[in-house]
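Exam revision sheet. Question 4 asks you to relate a sequence to its structure. Input first:
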Amino acid sequence: MSGLVLKLGPHERVLINGAVIENGEKRSRLAIMTPNANILRLRDAIHPQEANTPVKRVCYIAQLVLTGDASAGDTRQQLLRGIEQLSQVLTDHDSRSHLNLATKAVLEDQPYHALKSLRALLPREERLFAAAAR
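Answer key, structure tokens:
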């Protein structure tokens, strides 16, 4: 079996190509066979009021493409600019790797992969803010 396999908990919701799908009462697995389908677990979604840090703001822009609220073409420059700004602050090798993957994904119109790479930076950003608050 190829494609993306989603493992959903009871009553978990997922957005697939603009349609919200809710799982039933038992755990289940869905195989998404369509390449380049736009998929977002709603438990992972960033709500507009939560996009209050640099990484979250860039993630939110990528998420808008996945939800169909913005087109990849309309957000490309904004995403690339945001990634560039993050690369000026997050200079360690691991962060650079994630940012490079996100840039590549944006240029290849792969919003899911861009969001995935950017989300990997959220824990690092949280640690940096916590350290700065001390």
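Marking note for examiners. The chain is about 50% helix and 15% strand.
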